[in-house]
Amino acid sequence: MSKAQYAQRHDGRVAALQYLYSWSINAPDNEVDDLRVFFEGQEQPRDHYAFGEEIIDGVIKNQPEIDAQIKELAQNWEFDRIAKIDLAILRIAMFEMLHRKDIPPVVSINEAIDISKQFSNADSKRFINGILDRLKDKLGRDSRKASE
Known about the structure:
With 148 residues, the protein is an all-alpha fold. Helices cover 70% and strands 0% of the residues.
């Protein structure tokens, strides 16, 4: 993957984080309109964030399954006490790890940690890393390779 493609995927993840954070606080009545308005407010044209839009769609469609995984893996932690920003970061990385076999799990984990450093507090990266590391160990595939 080129540096430009990596940067575009990172931008997509950040846009997905921003949208999913907002969505977790106040889910829209009309997601199509809400996404249109959201992407109109971004720096780049909407197609620049195509990867992020795939993530948004995947997280929303798979939210019950992803949240069940978080509840199982967040040992000794009440789900409702997880900061909304950390929850959005976890949902993105877990969606990728569970449903995007073209992305090595360590890439999803590293991106989640990098994004948490930018958008959350210092303790979050350890919490997020711990949960994602437990999921990685459960996946039963090489964590450093894409599998498709």
